[in-house]
Amino acid sequence: MILCSWRRRKGNRGDDNESSDPLNGKNFDSVSLDSMEDPIMLSTAIPTPVVPATPDEVSEICSQIVVATHCGDHKRCKELLGKIKAWGKESECNKRCVVNNGTGCVLSDMFYSFASVSIEKHVDMLGEILSVLTWMFPLGEEGQSKLGSPASLNSMVWVLKNGDPSARQNAVLVLKELLSLNQRLVDTLSEIEGISEALVNIIREPICPKATKSSLTSIYYMISPSSISVALTSRFVELGLVSFITEILVDAEKGICERALGVLAGICDCKEGREEAYKNALTMPLLVKKMLRISEMATEFAVCTLWKLFKNDKRDEDDDKSVLVEALQAGAFQKLLVLL
Predict the structure, then answer these.
(1) How many other C-beta atoms lie within 10 A of the C-beta of residue 147?
(2) Is residue 196 situated within a structural domain?
(3) Measured distance CA(192)–CA(153) in Å, rounded
(4) Residue 138: is the preceding peptide bond cis (ω within 30°)?
(5) What is the CA radius of gyration of the chain?
(6) What does the H/E/C string look like for the chain?
(7) Domains held by the chain: number
(8) Distance between CA atoms of 336 and 262, rounded to whole angstroms?
């Protein structure tokens, strides 16, 4: 009797759940698989871990690049370069492994080799190499020697003048890193026609903040005191750099402001640079405004520029147009007191 009662209850439960069970009262073979939820699809997909590059693998690729470069095998070099780019995109760990196993020197040699043959013929390859070299610094002496050769520097300047925005960005990034390692390259670079125009154009027609910063830094190295700095500075002034810098300073981000102020301080070392600064109505208000607002470095550059302009201004202090009067009207006295 108890057993019968239990069976009746079980049967009632089955009736209640009939509508919710897709298999109830049906032949299993007639049930569509689309009506069933796949437990595999419901589970969270776990990506397959990427196997990191090993030093042996990197060394092997580098050896193959050396052989392909010396044979002038353009196609093979491009394939091997693609492998290095792929490693770099996978992880920062891979990038470190690639950099630490001599790849920068090998790619510098490849860039030099193709640049020495023909820039126009190998422009795509040179652009690809530059895109990888941007994360290969710092380079050793051998790599610096290859990239700092007249052939390599000529190629970089050609790309700066004629390349697409991405290639120009990579070229100026590499050039900036190269000059930071060896400022003696300024002598070689200054002899290449169009380098000043190319760097100013990146500031005048910005590609991205990173490219603008790299161009300003490169200019800063080029106009730093040397036997040719006055001539280089004068050329940059002729190209309207003072005006472009004041425009940048109006609303630029911190990193760009610091570099722009550094370049302006360097430009004011020469007479032509100071004359352009005196003529620009934005110079004094912007210098005073940027003091104590951006960073310690920016303040230092601004004060340095003010001092150079004050020291060399030949106008009478009572003249309403004198630099000293302009500075006082802009609030320089109060800010200098705060600095003291």
Answers:
(1) 33
(2) no
(3) 8
(4) yes
(5) 32
(6) CHHHHHHHHHHHHHHHCHHHCCCCCCCHHHCCHHHCCCHHHHCCCCCCCCCCCCHHHHHHHHHHHHHHHHHCCHHHHHHHHHHHHHHHHHCHHHHHHHHCCCHHHHHHHHHHHHHHHCCCCCHHHHHHHHHHHCCCCCCCHHHHHHHCCHHHHHHHHHHHHHCCHHHHHHHHHHHHHHHHHCCCHHHHHHCCCCHHHHHHHHHHCCCCHHHHHHHHHHHHHHHCCCCCHHHHHHHHHHCCHHHHHHHHHCCCCHHHHHHHHHHHHHHCCCHHHHHHHHHCCCHHHHHHHHCCCCCHHHHHHHHHHHHHHHHHCCCCCCCCCCHHHHHHHHCHHHHHHHHC
(7) 1
(8) 19
**Cα angle for residues 49, 91, 148 (degrees, 5° grid):** 150
Residue where the block lists tokens 């940027």: 290
Assigned token pair, 172: 């100026």
Residue 297 lies in a domain: yes
Q: What are 142-175's pLDDT values in tens digits?
A: 999 999 999 999 999 999 999 999 999 999 999 9
Q: Which residues of 14-42 are buried (b: 16+ CB within 10 A; e: fewer)?
A: eeeeeeeeeeeeeeeeeeeeeeeeeeeee
Q: Residues 88, 107: contact at Cβ < 8 Å?
A: no
Rounded Cα–Cα distance for residues 301 and 269 (Å):
12
CATH number at residue 261: 1.25.10.10
- Cα within 13 Å of Cα(45), Cβ side: 3
Determine the Cα–Cα distance for residues 168 and 176; give it in Å rounded to an integer.
Answer: 12
Per-residue pLDDT at 35 exceeds 50: no
Is the model's pLDDT at 212 over the cut of 90? Answer: yes
Q: What is the pLDDT of residues 168-197, one digit of tens each?
A: 999 999 999 999 999 899 999 999 999 999
Q: CA–CA separation, 125 vs 110, rounded Å? A: 10
Q: Is residue 103 part of a domain?
A: no
Q: How far is CA 165 from CA 95, 131, 169, in A?
A: 24, 12, 6
**Which range marks the domain in which residue 287 is found?**
241-340
Asked whether residue 289 is assigned to any structural domain, the reply reads yes
